[in-house]
Write a structure and sequence with these properties.
single chain; 422 residues; alpha+beta; 2 domains; six-stranded mixed beta barrel; 18 helices
Amino acid sequence: MNARPFGGWERAIAIRYLLTKRSHGGVALISAISFTAIALAVAALIITMSIMNGFRSELSAKILGFNGHAYVVGGAMSPADRAVVTRRIRAVAGVTQAMGLVESQALVQGPTAAAGAVVRGIDPADLRSTAIIADNIKAGSIKGFGDGEDGGDIVLVGQKLAESLGLAVGDPISIISPTGGATAFGTLPPSKSYTIGGIFSVGMSEYDQTFIYMPLNQAQLLFGRDQAVDFIEVKLDDPDKAPGLKRALAAAAGPGAMVTDWTERNRAYFGALEVERNVMRMIFMFIVALAALNIISGLVMLVKNKGRDIAILRTMGASRGAILRIFFMSGATIGVTGTLAGLAFGLAFCLNIEAIQRFVEWVTGVQVFNSDVYFLSHVPARVDWTEVAGVSLWALGASFLFTLLPAWRASRLDPVEALRNE
């Protein structure tokens, strides 16, 4: 019995003990429960973390696609100087787009309802190069936006805002500016009627319910900006570079300019998401560890039931190390198979999550992921393979650790005492 460690006979005995039935069926039942608990815990951790990764990734893509990565405020904002400043900013390494914008809140009116909105004035050429808007026109088009006399009165409206106001492409929409002019009857806010040329949907309800795009010159006129803009919006090839490029952008913008980036504007929001993600990871890692603890119960019962077998193996020449390895393999097999099953189930769930969402909604008749509440129109899931590997290693490590104690106890069993008790 002095064969190499983890040899064939050790593995055969370990598997045989693991599948013990008849009079010791309780051990098999506990093994099945342990296997199921580990599989479900691993799957739940992978699914939860993938959904949270997807939620953060989708929100980041929407927020950073719709908004800028850095903002230049102040400095030279007259048309001639602004053109020079914009060219210098575009020359900064990593910058993909720089455009002057006018942005203001306003009251918009349809035929039967009114609502608050954010009106964003943008140069037509810049709008066409903004993919998240230009590629997501659900009705109408951006053709004619800002072109000629008629095109100057064309605006683009978010889909949910248009639906709430009962508007469609071609309908007139009245926009009332919050800044008013003095008249004989007091201060009256300026109002103007525009034509809806297109309806966009970026897949995030906060933007689809709030924003209207109009030509830059019309926004300057409506909101009394003369020929100035509120800020220059800058987009980068990698949003994570924004904090490091602030100094270069400030130098390109010239004296008096102030540069902020998206991490400052959304710090609280993304910080809350990161805290929630870390807390959920920690909670589910504890659940995986608790599931692995079930292995101890099964192995303790197995050691108790197999005391006579252990004594016989010892008298036949099996070493304490061999006994330890046999029972370690019995428990480790539960951990490994449970982890693999949970891994397969969790990945299959994440990779087919949209089909599962549609099926659940079809069966229940209830929208399980309301975009008005969660901002997104579907349940997102993004599998982080590094995180999946970490989950798997954690589950395996916990299983191996909790297997060692009863396996060590089996190896220390005195064969004489075990036979005497039998």
